[in-house]
Amino acid sequence: MPHFRGFSRCNAPWLLALICVFAGIFPCTAYAQDERSVKSPDGQLEFRLFTALPEGSILNCLAYQVWLRGKPVIDTSYLGLDIEYQEPLLGENVGLSADHPIHEAHYNGLWADYLQTSTTGRRIQFEVRVWNDAVAFRYIVPRSALLFDLAIADDTTQFRFTGDSEALPAAAQLPFIRELPSIGWIGVYEQDPAGFPKAELKRFDTQTMVSHLPGGSHDETAAFQTKTPWTGPWHIIAIAANREALAQSEVFRELVK
Known about the structure:
Beta-galactosidase, Chain A, domain 5; eight-stranded antiparallel β-sheet
């Protein structure tokens, strides 16, 4: 299992219990806040964006779900970027500060801006587009005092698959394709911008794969260095009735325009 800094460092049961005592009547469980929903033009595919408290963590985190015809396809999966020499993850301890919907001929979308409340001005922006057969999302990092030079140690985007299916591999190259019983076929892709390292997937738990950039280390080496403002690659989740139809999704034609 890969070491996922964003949630392993917060596993302090005594501290979490103390917070629960002082919280009084408030339950110490994860719950969604600032939820935004984007549906496909036909209303069948839905992307839900929100912040939630991961199990064992004291910091909330940006998260998402994907639903198809009222059934979850991707369960609560956490989002973020590991910035070299900076804590916490860019995507943790955030609050929604602005958002607006996007409507185009073949997809609906959302742009959202989040402020990291524990730092002096670090922000992360998020864009999602939802077609009838796919969703695509990406990170945007605006310029701030702490993020003029951007050194990304890793991409920590999760994909938590629902339903019973074959065991997840320890690691996998993209695209990552699997069949979900009673739902169909699902494919995870990435559109690589010039100069950005090709990501792979690592198993996080029995249901979850997490994006990983080879060569990066939080305290030693950045996997990718650039200047802000920076727009990251599209993470793509396509859904189809059969494996062959995945590659024919309109998302691939739209994103190259």
